[in-house]
Amino acid sequence: MKKLAFLVLILFTFSSYAQDAKSLLNEVSAKAKSYDNIQIDFKYNLNNVKEKVNQDTRGDVTLSGNKYILHMMGTTRLFDGKKIFTIVPEDEEVTISTYNTQDDKDVTPSKLLTFYEKGYTSKMDVVQNVKGRKIQFVKLIPIDSKAEMKEVLLGIDVQTKHIYKLIQTDAKGTKYTLTVNSFKTNQPLSKTLFTFDEAKYKQDGYYINKLD
Known about the structure:
This protein is α+β, with helices and mostly antiparallel strands and 212 residues long. The chain is 18% helix and 47% strand. It has a single domain (2-210), classed as Lipoprotein localisation LolA/LolB/LppX (outer membrane lipoprotein receptor (LolB), chain A). A 12-stranded mixed sheet has the order 7-8-9-10-11-1-2-3-4-5-6-12.
């Protein structure tokens, strides 16, 4: 009888943690969707101990609905809701492709703040104090056992319900860490921010590579 009571207590505790994690994620998702737009400045780190690789870079992304414009590693990636434009000034080239939801299973900019809504089990993980901010981590495990990413840790600012850190670990042990430096919302944006001006780039001598 004592063993049964102990097992029930464990199951109840586990269920409570799972529910807490799910509730927190729901709050984060609802908060993100309440904004007209979001601007994030971030640091990105790729680390693989076995391969002795440790690379840092910075970037920024502006999100509005499912549209986004990302600047990272000298490249601009623009999504207007239908097509993806990858602009590489160094090569003076633009690649245009049609967005396919079936092919897109990664954490892309448009899904950065909501990717965890489907396809993962979740549970509470560690809590960290970052410069006076309480960061609650939630561990996400893909339901698909064949998924490239084996584990995701999502660090959430408990007070603001904003994502502070995203840590992805793949099957080879490589960690991809995105740390938010600044998180701004409802900023005044140009009406043409998510519009690709093909004529301008052609005039500037860019090669336009259309994949579709």
